[in-house]
Amino acid sequence: MGDMENQEALASLEILMSEFFAPTTSNLRKREIENMLENFSNRQDSWKHCLLFLQKSQNQYVLMFTLTTLENIINKQWISLPDNLKTEIRLTLWNELMSKHEVMIYFIRNKVAALIVSIARYDWPHLYPDFFSNIVELIKCDGRQCLLGLILAQAASEELGAARDTGVLLPSSRRNQLERLMLKGMPHMLAALNTILEKNAQNEGQSNPPPSPTNGIPQTSVLPDLLANAQDVHNFDKALNMEIVVKCLTTLQHLFSWLPLSSHVPPSWLQLFSTGAV
């Protein structure tokens, strides 16, 4: 398909999805649209269009339909796809996540992250050797990248961390291999998580109420606006840091549901938790 045809296909899909979710659309018409979408999903080349729609569309209905179609391809057809197509799909998902995760709606972001972990279920480490190291490096970053790393880490723990049935047919030998791979990389991940908690504990210990910004001086000129803007930035940073700490703790909670605690809990954490620093 040429660029014009791709744009027309995307525009048609956006119209269909908006119509489907409109409150005035009849059930009969919804069934017709469902059949049209199902026929599209079953096409052999649907993945190509999905990757294009993922990159070009900002319509949340289109994005969820696209990601759901890709999810079905990963769960049902992945083993039969050529390696070059697997790599193209994975890299497109990863690049979209890295470039847009700060502006993506949270459930779209989380869905893309989950698909990347689903791909690792089949391709790590032979076709996807840097899967785990990419996550650890993100956790070591600041701000939204750190949060993204934590989202991926929890998804990896839920999907790959324990050799159990997750609703996807996978040989037990492969599940055991995935658990061994997770255990092998766990010291690096736990060290990165530990850094987040220790940094938060230090910040909490050092935080003191700021002095009155005016010290009795009448608030004139642009000073109130500057102070308000500074306060907004401070509140945003504080909220993001809290989101990171909470996500770090929920990730650890899931990791500890299957990790051997005796060999994976650093002594420093016992002190952190016992003092109520986190």
State the gist of this model.
The chain is mainly alpha-helical and 278 residues long. It contains twelve helices and no strands.
Walkthrough of the structure:
It is a single chain. The protein has 12 helices and no strands. With 278 residues, the protein is an all-alpha fold. It has a domain at 130-205 and 228-278. The longest helix has 35 residues, at 172-206.
On the 0-100 scale, what is the average pLDDT? 86
Helix content: over 70%
Shape: globular
Pairing-aware structural class of the strands and helices? mainly alpha
Q: Give the beta-strand count.
A: 0
Rg over CA atoms, rounded to whole Å, is 23 Å
Our estimate of the beta-strand percent is under 5%
Q: Main β-sheet, in a few words?
A: none
H and E order: HHHHHHHHHHHH
The stretches of 5 or more residues where confidence is low (pLDDT under 50) are 211-220
* Straight-line N-to-C gap: 54 Å
Features:
mainly alpha, 278 residues, 12 helices, single chain
Secondary-structure blueprint:
Elements lengths: L2 H19 L5 H15 L4 H11 L3 H18 L5 H18 L5 H18 L7 H9 L3 H18 L11 H35 L16 H33 L5 H4 L2 H8 L4
